[in-house]
Amino acid sequence: MNVEQAAKQLEALGNPTRLQVYRALVRAGHAGLPVRQLQERVGIAAASTLSHHLRRLILTGLVSQERQATTLICRAVYPAMDALVGFLADECCADAGCTTRNDAA
């Protein structure tokens, strides 16, 4: 992962509402959530507001959507989440000479 991609994803997650939406999708697992259920779970009254936040998460590759008949299913993109977390942790203590991340604790 490059710095620009990580910055875009972190910026998207820097909004409290988007972070709440993303966490709800991560908690939902690979099955994801229908938009209406996500809207209820997060407590966003206006569908257009949820749509705006989802769009930002989709553009950064953190969320995907799939239409199943008349239902739109939203899912966290776990490889993208793993890449972002890995990007943040890969160089943990690199300049301090640690051999494992647990050494820093």
From TrEMBL:
Residues 8-89 form the HTH arsR-type domain. CDD domains: HTH_ARSR (cd00090). Keywords: DNA-binding, Transcription, Transcription regulation. InterPro entries: ArsR-like_HTH, HTH_ArsR_DNA-bd_dom, Metal_resp_trans_reg, WH-like_DNA-bd_sf, WH_DNA-bd_sf. It comes from the Bacteria. NCBIfam families: HTH_metalloreg. This is HTH arsR-type domain-containing protein. It comes from Methylobacterium isbiliense.
